[in-house]
């Protein structure tokens, strides 16, 4: 019975052309990666889809630090943090990040998590008690949405980046604890949330500001400390979640907040308490990653990323001008997430397939992940891309457009 039930559901997904396909990589994360194709053969692909924005996942120092960490700490942590899994490696990572965020969050402390998904569940489900209320941007990441569903607090959704609507909602709220929740860089649009305005509203309405800096950490700010450094924000009202699986090139996550908030999360966050602490070897390697990220390597790579962004936007902008009748649009993004909004699901998937046939992997994103009529290519850039990689992408899009016109 269960199998029949599931077959029906799988068929329904397939009929809407929404089946997601798993692809196996046969070489390490990199812009040039061997990916197994449907006929079972590994093929070199030019990738525009990973979140390894600084290219640190394949940096030799990271592999070396991981090996070193494994020599020192061997395998697993053996238990959750509060039982016996918390090691010196976790403590050093947390202390290091605490010092990074001290200028932005008075009396900052940091708690480490195994993934960003779990860190977001921790913050939302623990702080969103029955006396609280959430104010959530409609384009927030799935992990924040899931966490708010788990929480007791009701959720008021506001239109994307709509500060005026948020202000009205806050003004009419009688909740004792008000929690504004927003991504810093929105994952499917690449735009930045209006963080200074959100913080201003938090101050005016005695609210707290939960920020998910998954795509900003390592990418934004002179030293890569993320959105708080970029906007030069400082407030004890900020509760920042960052992931270490994207620009930091490894895995893990953290929450940075005033020490009172962290003390409570340790006691109440179920995704902190009831899960095995992450590998200490990974925490050891993360310290090396943070060195790279804030130092000369990170600074040079962030500059290169900006140059790639400019090159891509110029090239796609020209291409869209020449083909204005297509009605495609380049999203107004100043980050490594550069969506090309095509509109229809079909055209998006035809374009993505044409690029795949030319040896490039650029995922098409369709509803319900994005609004109906706004299907898009989600192009992500990494500092390990070269100018000629971008040229190849531009040429392949041009060729695909001509073939689609001819068809
Ligand atoms: C990737 C992502 C997460 C989840 O982080 P993981 O460490 O991959 O679990 C959370 N929020 C946003 C906005 C993300 O893009």
Task: Provide key terms for this protein.
PyrdxlP-dep_Trfase; biotin biosynthesis; pyridoxal phosphate; globular; alpha/beta; 8-amino-7-oxononanoate synthase; Aspartate Aminotransferase, domain 1; 407 residues; EC 2.3.1.47; binds pyridoxal-5'-phosphate; Aspartate Aminotransferase, domain 2; 14 strands; single chain; 44% helix
Set down the secondary structure blueprint.
Elements: H1 2-15, E1 32-36, E2 42-47, H2 60-73, H3 81-85, H4 88-101, E3 108-113, H5 116-127, E4 132-137, H6 142-150, E5 155-158, H7 163-171, E6 177-183, H8 195-204, E7 207-212, H9 227-231, E8 238-243, E9 253-258, H10 259-268, H11 270-273, H12 280-294, H13 296-322, E10 329-330, E11 337-343, H14 345-357, E12 360-361, E13 364-365, E14 375-380, H15 387-406
Helix pairs in contact: 2-12, 4-12, 5-6, 13-15, 14-15
The site of pyridoxal-5'-phosphate (PLP) has 14 residues, from α5.
Question: What does this protein look like?
Answer:
- With 407 residues, the protein is of the alpha/beta class.
- It has two domains: 15-47 and 297-406, Alpha-Beta Complex (Aspartate Aminotransferase, domain 1); 60-294, Aspartate Aminotransferase, domain 2 (3-Layer(aba) Sandwich), CATH 3.40.640.
- It is 44% helix and 17% strand.
- It is built from 15 helices and 14 strands.
- It has helices spanning 2-15, 60-73, 81-85, 88-101, 116-127, 142-150, 163-171, 195-204, 227-231, 259-268, 270-273, 280-294, 296-322, 345-357, 387-406; strands spanning 32-36, 42-47, 108-113, 132-137, 155-158, 177-183, 207-212, 238-243, 253-258, 329-330, 337-343, 360-361, 364-365, 375-380.
- It has a seven-stranded mixed β-sheet with strand order 3-9-8-7-6-4-5, sandwiched between helices.
- The mean pLDDT is 96.
- Pyridoxal-5'-phosphate (PLP) is lined by residues 115-117, 120, 141, 143, 183, 187, 212, 214-215, 243, 245, 253.
């Amino acid at each position: 019975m269960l199998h029949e039930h599931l077959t029906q559901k799988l068929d329904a997904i397939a009929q809407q052309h929404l089946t997601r396909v798993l692809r196996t990589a046969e070489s390490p994360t990199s812009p040039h990666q061997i990916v197994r194709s449907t006929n079972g053969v590994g093929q070199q692909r030019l990738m525009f889809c990973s979140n390894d924005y600084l290219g640190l996942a394949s940096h030799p120092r990271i592999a070396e630090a991981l090996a070193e960490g494994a020599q020192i700490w061997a395998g697993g942590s053996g238990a959750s943090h509060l039982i016996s899994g918390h090691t010196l490696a976790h403590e050093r990572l947390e202390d290091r990040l605490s010092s990074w965020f001290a200028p932005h969050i008075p009396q900052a402390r940091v708690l480490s998590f195994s993934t960003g998904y779990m860190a977001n569940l921790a913050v939302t489900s623990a702080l969103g008690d029955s006396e609280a209320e959430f104010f959530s941007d409609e384009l927030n990441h799935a992990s924040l949405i899931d966490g708010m569903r788990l929480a007791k607090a009701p959720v008021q959704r506001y239109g994307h980046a709509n500060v005026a609507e948020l202000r009205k909602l806050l003004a009419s709220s009688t909740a004792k604890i008000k929690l504004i929740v927003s991504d810093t860089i929105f994952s499917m649009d690449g735009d930045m949330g209006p963080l200074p305005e959100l913080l201003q509203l938090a101050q005016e309405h005695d609210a707290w500001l939960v920020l998910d800096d998954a795509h900003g950490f390592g990418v934004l700010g002179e030293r890569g400390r993320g959105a708080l450094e970029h906007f030069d924000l400082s407030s004890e009202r900020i509760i920042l979640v960052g992931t270490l699986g994207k620009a930091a090139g490894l895995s893990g996550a953290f929450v940075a907040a005033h020490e009172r908030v962290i003390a409570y999360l340790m006691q109440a966050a179920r995704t902190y308490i009831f899960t095995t602490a992450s590998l200490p070897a990974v925490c050891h390697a993360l310290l090396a990653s943070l060195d790279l990220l804030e130092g000369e390597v990170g600074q040079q790579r962030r500059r290169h990323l900006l140059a790639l962004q400019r090159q891509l936007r110029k090239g796609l902008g020209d291409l869209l001008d020449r083909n204005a009748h297509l009605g495609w649009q380049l999203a107004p993004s100043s980050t490594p997430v550069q969506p090309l909004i095509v509109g229809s699901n079909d055209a998006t998937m035809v374009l993505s397939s044409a690029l795949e046939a030319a040896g490039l992997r650029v995922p098409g994103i369709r509803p319900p992940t994005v609004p109906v009529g706004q299907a898009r290519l989600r192009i992500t850039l990494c500092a390990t891309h070269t100018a000629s990689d971008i040229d190849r992408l531009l040429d392949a899009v041009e060729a695909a457009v001509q073939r689609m016109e001819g068809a």
